[in-house]
Design a protein that fits this description.
Chain lengths: 190, 665, 665, 190
């Protein structure tokens, strides 16, 4: 696993709009050396909020990288590297559903997203089991959750902001999906 | 128009851009510190509710320089590649024509004729009475994704093939004011196929031949079912989703062979056309689009017209290493057939990945047209429209086989309106380009050199990794995408449905992982000049220019239909099904269907002798992905940049999947 | 008709049953061993392809005995509970009527009026010209499940609420031949709610009041949004899916209160009606259907008409132990309001579980009608239609508040066509049953004793666990389910859309697990006498019998609409939208929509002054679950036994979700 | 865990049609005492057949009860007991999708079905994690698979056949879904 000295790498924005964002987004954090990779995969993770009988507590497996800006930045790199962006674009979706909104077909918890990546999902999400090492999956989880503001945005670069000059006020600043949006939910995306 | 006047107009446009920014909430004021106007300061609208100020300052000198430069360059460049001004149809002059089969009132293949012209000789519905057209019955397909397919009518039965899950319905037309289902065939494709289907899970329709309905499924099965009973006759798997392959095209049957090709140019797929035996479904030959001549089926009969397309194993040597194995050139568009020459014509798709720096060379035979002998698959000629394609300019668009008066003689040509923005008119026996004229605004190239067949690229539009290139026109879906044109021998015009989109793009390093996207490009699209995103162009091939043009706010993503009643039908992405005058483009009639239209209109004679017109309503496809896939408009790069240009579509239409059938009272 | 003649007819029917078995492939031959006809041997059709023989021998003596017995019993029983023979509408005789509000051309609540009569005074479309009706525009909802909802029209805006995911669209009616979306509100209900929604994920529509559109979501939110902008005003969660609760009903607004109730009678839910403050959404009162009087809001003003409904804490004492806490009586149907009496009327659903042996007692107040003061929620009277319900006979059907000439005086009544098969006419001030006449074939009961209000049960139809009871008529969906009736003061007739189904059932032990089904019954339904599964009955309340009846092959699962043009509109589950003559039932017009119709027709005056008629097309609901849920017809018990009666529906219609709007040319 | 001496319990059919089936369906098998419950839950089970890169072998966790008629019979009992039948009827579906056909939204392998039961699925399948002991889940898996003929039908009773006298040739004899059926697939049932 490569470790980088800076917690946040912001590319020099090519145009003016992105600049302020990137600067604000940068924060240093403790650098962790030789951290042990997180424990094994979550097993009995609920994909449904429906529980028959009395409600049981759901024991969450915490994402060890949840608040790591470094992990988030690495997750962003891996998001491109493993071609996640090919289907989910920069969070807005394409072949796959968007990740920057507040709709989570298979759950938004870190362990839900972890399982979605390794197990795959029936309508097109491939199974990456055996393809991505577990620590990298957790980094991807951190980044994916940051797209909709579920984790802090501190680690994200402003990589794509410069592309949106002509399009106006595109905001990658977390999920504030207007309740009154025109988008029907992705109920046909299992 | 003088250059000076053009510059004034361009500066005027710059002012409009400023006003647009203002309308979107940007505040801007001049930064006149020492009494002189020095710069504009833009303040982002979100500043109002955020703790820090997002603003940027544009020095006025820079602004002036850039604007003037852009305006000047724009003007110079556009002179060469702007479509010619509209003209009235040439009434007295010689016009294009075609030899027609006898009209049987049926519609047995997506384009009706082997020549691919989508023209019906039915003439009950005319430019005079089409205003009385009304829906007579409707049929819901149970599927919400993009419906690009053409319905077929054979033996008083209508056949509808849906997008994934590729349900095939047979509807009985003999019952009057409804059409009960005779049978439904469910191929049960693998749901995972949806994950490798770039740009929605569409299908462009089945084909009828020899008592069978034959079609492709998204998970790469070619299936023949008995047209009368729906019983499966054969089912051949010809591709693998784990390699990124899918199938969306409409097969063509020629001489007891079913011709099919694959999709997946954005997934590192190697393209091919296969011929399957009509009786058994076994594969008779496979012609790859890339690789050695032995696999491209290039042999002794191969005689390209231009030197650039000649040479041994160009499908290997115009690539680096083994890149041709994942280089695209898929075959997901239209196939035409000339029985006299015994040649089939089809185009190949873009090379992969989109990022051109990762694939030095001409990348043959991507973005090309092949003429092949269907008996053996042998290539007879080929022509590469866009060598080393930079912008996803597939070559898969339709080839209409017609006869055109050209310089004093009648030439047997194919008309190919390409994604790169030119209508190619080629001698279909030899592959010679007779003319290649722009039908949209083009900034990426400067025309086709008819002497050597070369496309003249504009160097500044060739971006490198990490570099943003602006104002790429046409955008990646091209001047025109898959949506097929029609031709009327009565007017001599080709009716092109198309878009008017430009884009900015930025190359990225693409990482090949089988079964995942292989693109390497961030793209953001926008409306082209004029601001309208769609057009219907009546193209006069004899004159090499548009006879007339209609503009549409949204891309015209449906096919067109021309009839002997001198009516042209098409649909819009906000759900209007429209009829216009084939001669003048005058709007004659429209009806609002339930969802956006991206299907192929067709017409038939019912068992009652009346003429009917049918269209699928159901928005989707690449242009409609924002609705069909519930994409998030805040990411301009979503759906390969298409979402940026279609942000308003969700407010204009909703998902659906319904057949509408119309008739006169 | 003499008894002898009836027996002959019945034997005739037995012969038909034999022929039916033969048609299904059963072979039968007489077992005439010693020259005498002794028995019939049936051979199962699958025998042909199976290794062992499946056959059964029915001794003739037994056959004769059973048939004669059945025919005799049938006959005796049916005399009491068969609907009276059709008659012409009483033209000279006094007829029912109602006081109407001024016609505003709008449709602000599902039933249009507080009296729940679904009658419009618009009269441009008449029995004479309705044959010219044609669709003018359509709108796809993006949702494929069952569309039971009524569109609303207020201030030239149409509001459509879809089934789950409960999208709310506002369509602008001022644009002529289409209706662009003004806004869409997406409440984003929890997808898990689908798993506790018995019988499809329907919604019966929103209500307009005080500038707001108010509606329920499947996951138990009551939401008010600004009718002009779609902005959320308030959002109150009133139920819990993990207890099996969902919400599907259409709220009613009375005196600045939003009245809403829950669904989930098949999930061990405790039913309630809640009043929410129209301005803030806060709960003003909750009236449970079961439990102590303090929670049922039974107090000093409670004066039921019959002794059987009097007593303290009957909502507890008519149950065993704490069963009332999971005993059903949900409130998912219709609410009416009489402003003069200041009373709201609504019915409660079946007790849970279906298996009656698990809940000894009358199970109050399930399958009952309540009259309540909306200001406080206090019950003023109640009447239990089906005490200790055996067959899922919910009491939630609509209550039409009209005035009926009865025995020389005009009575202010409610007309309640109940699932148990009787049209109840009750004095709405007192709860007295004036008449209760069958509108379908009934085998489970022998009428209502008007002296004490008791329903007279047929003991043989009360099955025990493990015991199969046959020929239960009406079946569990009742003689009529939720689909609402209309009333025309011009004809004095109530137009009942309903089904004609019978069933066999077998009790099972039900195990209560919160959030899972709590039913305990295997059910298999079939068409009732005549074989037609649906009917439209024009009911003359003054005469207490049908004026005329139309039969439909499939259950009539849509509502009806009556207009001053003397036209009655309804839809069929195979997609026909129909207009019939309000006086005679003569069929006047029909149009085939894309999917089966289970919605509520409505009519409005457009901004152009023209009368329009609108209906949702989109099959589903309990009767359409086989299509909406892709159920497997090989399991006759699927969808609580409904699939058995609807096996052919998938061949007759497809899923869809489209609004159709019709007008005269 | 209750053990019963007979591997197959066929109720006496009330009517004639069901009788032959029940008799044929009965077979004795070895009775297993004190068998150890199967290992823990399957974790990295693929829900998608799509695998990026080179295809990896999918290691199946075998259902220890796969061919046990006793487990199948117990599974049938549990299918009623845990109210599975309330949603899925006797395999034909209702609130939930059918289980007797050949369409499996989340996979048909034993470990897929196991996970579907414990994790739940987003469009309404509740999570039974912590509600049903693991050995009983495996018995349910055995029964559910038998509904569509994926496991032998030996253990199934003819419980509901007698209900179908009037409806004609209803067959519960495994999944022979006609390819040419009118049923569109359950693509909107994630």
């Amino acid at each position: 696993m490569m470790l980088r000295p800076l917690a946040c790498r912001a590319r020099t924005p090519l145009l003016l709009v992105g600049a302020a964002l990137a600067v604000v987004g940068c924060r240093r954090e403790e650098r962790r050396f030789r951290e042990s990779p997180p424990a094994t995969t979550p097993s009995a993770v609920r994909v449904s909020a429906l529980q028959p009988g009395t409600m049981a507590d759901t024991s969450h497996m915490p994402n060890p990288y949840e608040s790591s800006a470094y992990a988030q930045s690495e997750g962003q790199r891996l998001f491109g590297w493993y071609n996640c962006a090919g289907c989910h674009a920069n969070g807005g979706g394409g072949m796959g559903p968007p990740l920057m909104d507040d709709e989570w077909i298979y759950g938004s918890s870190p362990e839900n997203i972890y399982n979605t990546i390794i197990q795959g999902r029936p309508n097109g999400m491939p199974s990456f089991a055996g393809k991505i090492p577990s620590p990298q999956i957790w980094q991807l989880v951190t980044y994916v959750r940051s797209l909709s503001g579920l984790t802090p945005m501190s680690g994200r670069s402003a990589r794509t902001e410069h592309m949106n000059f002509y399009q106006g006020a595109q905001s990658m600043q977390g999920a504030q999906t207007p309740k009154n949006s025109f988008r029907p939910p992705a109920s046909e995306f299992p | 128009m003088s250059v000076a006047r053009e510059q004034v107009e361009c500066l005027h446009h710059s002012l409009i851009i400023l006003l647009c920014l203002a309308a979107r909430g940007y505040a801007f004021r001049d930064d006149a510190r020492n009494g002189r106007f020095r710069a504009l300061i833009f303040t982002h609208p979100m500043t109002l509710r955020m703790s820090y100020e997002r603003r940027f300052r544009v020095p006025f000198r820079f602004l002036l320089l850039v604007t003037l430069a852009a305006c000047t360059r724009e003007d110079v460049a556009s002179r060469a590649r702007e479509p010619a001004a509209p003209a009235l149809p040439a009434s007295g002059t010689p016009r294009a024509t075609v030899t027609l089969d006898a009209e049987d009132g049926q519609w047995t293949r997506a384009a009706k004729s082997l020549s691919g012209i989508r023209y019906s000789q039915l003439a009950q519905i005319t430019a005079d009475n089409v205003r009385n057209l009304r829906p007579v019955w409707t049929f819901s397909t149970s599927v919400l994704r993009g419906h690009e397919e053409a319905p077929l009518v054979v033996n008083n039965t209508m056949y509808i093939l849906t997008p994934y899950p590729n349900l095939l319905y047979a509807l009985d037309l003999t019952k009057g004011d409804s059409a009960p289902t005779k049978w439904m065939y469910n191929p049960k494709p693998q749901s995972e196929a949806q994950g490798v289907a770039c740009c929605d899970v569409v299908n462009r329709g089945p084909v009828f031949a020899n008592g069978s309905i034959i079609f492709n499924t998204l998970d790469n099965h070619v299936i023949a079912v008995d047209a009368a009973t729906g019983a499966e006759k054969w089912n051949t798997k010809v591709g693998e989703i784990n390699n990124g392959e899918t199938m969306t095209m409409s097969p063509l049957v020629v001489k007891n062979m079913v011709l099919v090709g694959n999709s997946g140019g954005e997934m590192g797929v190697r393209g091919w056309l296969k011929a399957l035996d009509l009786g058994s479904g076994s594969v008779r030959w496979t012609a790859y689009s890339t690789g050695p001549d032995s696999e491209v089926l290039i042999g002794a009969r191969f005689k390209p017209h231009y030197p650039k397309d000649r040479g041994k194993d160009l499908g290997v040597s115009t690539w680096t290493g083994a890149q041709w194995k994942i280089g695209g050139g898929t075959v997901w568009g239209w196939i035409s057939y000339d029985p006299t020459l015994n040649l089939v014509y089809y185009g190949t798709a873009n090379p992969g990945p989109w990022n051109p720096d990762q694939r030095p060379g001409d990348n043959k035979w991507t973005s090309s047209i092949f003429a092949r002998d269907p008996d053996t698959g042998e290539a007879v000629w080929a022509y590469q429209m866009s060598p080393h394609d930079l912008h996803d300019y597939d070559g898969v668009n339709e080839n209409l086989l017609i006869d055109v008066p050209w310089k004093g003689q009648t030439r047997h040509v194919l008309i190919h309106p390409d994604r790169n923005g030119y209508v190619y008119m080629m001698d279909r026996a030899t592959g010679e380009v007779l003319s290649a004229e722009p039908f949209v605004h083009i900034t990426t190239t400067h025309g086709v050199d008819l002497a050597n067949g070369m496309l003249r690229y504009e160097p500044s539009k060739h971006g490198r990794v990490g570099e943003v290139v602006r104002d790429i026109c046409p955008a990646s879906p091209g001047g025109k995408d898959w949506q097929p044109s029609s031709f009327s021998p009565r007017t001599g015009l080709v009716y092109l449905p198309h878009q008017n989109l430009c884009q900015d793009s930025e190359g990225l390093e693409a990482n090949y992982i089988a079964g995942t996207p292989y693109v390497g490009m961030n793209v953001v699209m926008t409306a082209g000049p004029g601001g309208n995103r769609g057009e219907l162009t009546a193209w006069d091939p004899a004159a090499g220019r548009a006879a007339w043009k209609l503009t549409e706010d949204l891309p015209v993503w449906s096919g067109t239909l021309a009839t002997a009643g001198d009516v042209v039908f098409y649909g819009t992405m906000d759900g209007w099904f429209k009829a216009v005058d084939a001669r003048t483009g005058a709007k004659l009639w429209q009806y609002k269907t339930g969802s956006g239209i991206i299907g192929q209109p067709m017409t038939y004679r019912g068992p009652d002798g009346k003429q009917y017109v049918a269209i699928m309503s159901g928005v989707g496809g690449w242009a409609g992905a924002i609705v069909a896939g519930n994409l998030d408009p805040r990411d301009s790069t979503a759906a390969l940049g298409m979402v940026a240009a279609m942000k308003d579509l969700p407010s204009k239409t909703t998902k659906g999947g319904t057949l509408y059938v119309f008739a006169l009272p």
